[in-house]
Amino acid sequence: MILRRLHLRDFRNYAQLELKLSEQNNFFTGKNAHGKSNLLEAIYVLAVTRSFRSGNEKELMRLGGEGYEVTGEFSNELGVKHLATICCDALNGKQMSLDRKRWSSMQWVGKFPVVLFSPESHKITSGSPAERRRFVDMLLCQSAPAYLADLMEYNRILRQRNVLLAANATSGKDFTAWTQALALFGCRVVAARFQLLEDYAPALHQAYTHIAGSPSPFRIFYRTRFESTQTTPERFLGLLQEARPHEERRKRTLIGPHLDDFEFSVAGKDLRQYGSRGEQKTALLALKWAEAEYLKNKTGTTAMILIDDLPSELDAGRLQHTIDCFAGRGQLFITAVMKIDRQMNHGHHFEIDEGEVRRVH
């Protein structure tokens, strides 16, 4: 999928912006806090209907504005054009339209695949389990439309069950019904995650071997109470029954995919605990490269690849290597503080100064 044009109205520090983009590489340079990341954020919102920086819609609105609008003109691999718009204001909330027809978020996610590589991405390999669950869930939501619906329903049921646990209301029919529903949708979530890791493995191995220049196996293990062959509602209900006394004491659900984790392993060692900083950076680069390949294989559409704040400490060789890893795997959007050699990297180069965007090449 190629984003040909981007239009912003009252988004972050942009009152109005119209950009014609390269179908290959787009570089945005300028000082910090002048609006580089805001551009990538707008593209991400257009792709998955939410920000990667904030869950508060009001923060996306320009100071003094009453709403925002992000519009993109896309074309797919067959040359079919699409007009996508996401707007939000206090009166109507968030609305999405594709080719001037209203769409829901569950219909939308996965239509415009996106891969994000930002300064916060290191949390995937070194942060809390929630960061790894978020990475896996977003990959599944973009590649398997039914997963988003199952995950949203599981989370809704989980909240209701926790309300009953907090109120000591665990002896009635309502609690039993919510528990049975939790087991049903929880199994769907767990089974989809197991399948993802199986399907993702070949791309991950290829990416790590190429980037690291090493045949050392890079694997992801799913740390859950379930076995891949025993992901059934009956098994889930059995585990919940065993945990019931502990849940009643702690007032919350203690079994389920909302508590699971993923372990990244290189050459048999836990990357989070034993991996060097260099190994973690290499692994993260491989994860993102494999993510782009996986999305293309599953959706039939190349992803937009957003690289926010390309590290200024990279020398020219390592900078080129990073860009080359993603070049050809999707339309690139890269922000950086330092100048990027225009001869070395073909595409459109833009300079940003206090919200003003100027194409320089």
Please give a structural write-up.
The structure is a single chain. It is globular and about 65 Å long. A hairpin with a 2-residue loop joins strand 10 and strand 11. The chain has two domains: 174 residues, Rossmann fold (3-Layer(aba) Sandwich), CATH 3.40.50; 175 residues, Glutathione S-transferase Yfyf (Class Pi), Chain A, domain 2. The longest helix has 40 residues. With 361 residues, it is α/β, with parallel strands linked by helices. It is built from ten helices and 15 strands.
In short, what is this structure?
The chain has helices at residues 36-48, 105-108, 123-126, 129-143, 145-166, 173-212, 233-250, 271-274, 277-299, 316-326, and strands at 2-11, 14-20, 25-29, 67-75, 81-89, 93-98, 101-103, 114-117, 218-223, 261-266, 269-270, 304-307, 332-336, 348-353, 356-359. It has 361 residues and is of the alpha/beta class.
Summary keywords:
single chain; alpha/beta; Glutathione S-transferase Yfyf (Class Pi), Chain A, domain 2; 6-stranded antiparallel sheet; 6-stranded mixed sheet; 10 helices
